[in-house]
Write a structure and sequence with these properties.
It is built from four helices and five strands; from the N terminus they run E-H-E-E-H-E-H-E-H. It has 139 residues and is of the alpha/beta class. The chain has a five-stranded parallel sheet with strand order 2-1-3-4-5, sandwiched between helices.
């Protein structure tokens, strides 16, 4: 059974809701998901997971949240190896450039990104379905 860490930061609850749906998709596909706020995740536990779903909304001028999530990302992006990683988050302005930038940074770091998901504002039924499908890809 695949063990997946769903690690997220959320300011309004939208990305937190997506994290829950991603975890549901992992479980429905036969995996085990641990949903953890980025501030509570211990980098030392990276080795105990088979895959990762990382969630962060667009902040500021289309960037990752800078106080907690960006430092976590900078500290861990070189540690995922060949393990599957999915990136997800919500946005409320612009067109989602922060995800393109994040995905490019992941590629430069050698991260095995299997897919990404961005959802405008709060996830609706379609966003829920997409998030569950994203989680299933990690199993």
């Amino acid at each position: 059974m695949s063990k997946v860490a769903v690690i997220y930061w959320s300011g309004t609850g939208n990305t937190e809701a997506l994290a829950g749906f991603v975890a549901d998709g992992v479980s429905e596909a036969g995996g085990e998901a641990d949903v953890v706020q980025v501030s509570d995740f211990d980098k030392a536990s990276l080795a105990s997971y088979d895959a990762f779903a990382l969630g962060c909304p667009a902040m500021g001028s289309e960037e990752l949240e800078y106080d907690e999530f960006q430092p976590f990302w900078d500290d861990t992006k070189g540690s995922f190896g060949e393990k599957k990683v999915a990136l997800f988050g919500s946005y409320e302005w612009a067109e989602g450039e922060w995800m393109d930038t994040w995905k490019a940074d992941a590629a430069d770091a050698g991260v095995n990104v299997v897919d990404t998901l961005i959802v405008y504002d709060a996830p609706d039924a379609e966003g829920e379905t997409q998030a569950k499908a994203l989680g299933a890809k990690l199993v």
